[in-house]
Amino acid sequence: MASTVRNRITSVKSLAESPELTSIPPSYTFTTNPDDEEVVDPDDDPIPIVDYFLLVSGIPDQRSKAIHELRKACEEWGFFIVDHHTVPNSLMEKMVHQVFAFFNLTEEEKQEYAGKNPTDPIKTGTSYNASMDKVLFWRDFLKIFVHPEFHSPQKPPGFSETLAEYCTRTRKVGRELLEGISESLGLEGNYIDKAMNLDSGLQLIAANLYPPCPEPELAMGIPPHSDHGVLNLVIQNGVSGLQVLHNGKWVKVNANPNCLLVFVGDHLEILSNGKYKSVLHRAVVSNEATRMSLASLIAPCLDTVVEPAEKLLDKQRNPAAYIGMSFRDFLELTRSNNLYGKSVLDKLRI
């Protein structure tokens, strides 16, 4: 019965809401490596927290403390939580509400944005690349390019206005964090911003919906992967499911909806010559609640060649570990690879 239901739907949301569904279709059955399955609570392995207020306070001692926190988090985790940031809680809540409103549009309305081209400025779909994925992921998505040119769906009402403000706020926080990260590497504060040409850099919004799953132990929302780009700032709706890999164990990330979760991206790993590593993370699903995450990805300009920072290299002790590649070419590689691990970044290792 499940497979016949699957043939009639265009999204996991439709599938999950079908009264006929009692088990997942075989195409969604995900097998994981048992060696990767040890999962721990954040109390057992505390996730680093960076105080954004200290970073931007203008007080040298406080800023130094925040930069130390950034260095430690980027070196040891590739992931951290930002508190005391400047994205209002009311705006975050409104953005989450608007994303749910989009996914609650009719299938016909959402299909207006079912782009065929990966570079379409607005694209909605399911899984990762449903036409290529050998196993489908229990996830629907909406991806929007919002910088250097702003795009937005016209539905639901008010979505565009909320999105515009949210993108502006998260972009500002991201660039302030990158200034501190740049200094933490011993570089000038504006080094990363200039090296990535962020004035013309890409900012991508990716909304992910993970509906309740009747057999969550068999399905996967998103498999282990790292993010391309420089930084990824993520909010959630208060439902758990995100896990990050640290010291060989999967650490659960608590779903405080007022936190900004920040992931080091592949291109920060390249620029830092591997000193700061992009973090592997995954999304597991639940049989009880719908989880939503909203990512604001800050990335280089398409034509910018990203390579290890010259000032961090030493021919004998620390030679370049990655080849340089334009962000445009990197994206082309991602489109021809499966979403798993660091399959694309690995191709750039020397």
Provide the CATH top-level class.
Mainly Beta
> Span between N and C termini?
49 Å
CATH topology, which one? Jelly Rolls
* SS field, number of helical segments: 10
Return residue spans where pLDDT drops below 50 for at least 5 consecutive residues: 1-8
CATH architecture: Sandwich
Can you walk me through this structure?
The protein has one domain: B-lactam Antibiotic, Isopenicillin N Synthase, Chain (Jelly Rolls). The model is unreliable at about 1-10 (pLDDT under 50). The strands form three sheets. It has an eight-stranded mixed beta sheet. A five-stranded mixed beta sheet has the order 1-10-9-12-7, with no helix packed on it. The protein starts with a helix and ends in a 15-residue tail after the last helix. It is of the alpha+beta class and about 350 residues long. Helices cover about 30% and strands about 20% of the residues. The protein has ten helices and 15 strands. Helix 4 packs across helix 7 (about 160-185). It has helices at about 1-5, 10-15, 50-55, 60-75, 90-105, 105-110, 160-185, 190-195, 265-270, 325-335; strands at about 40, 50, 80-85, 120-125, 140-145, 205-210, 220-225, 230-235, 240-245, 250, 260-265, 280-285, 290-300, 305, 325. The protein is globular and about 60 Å long.
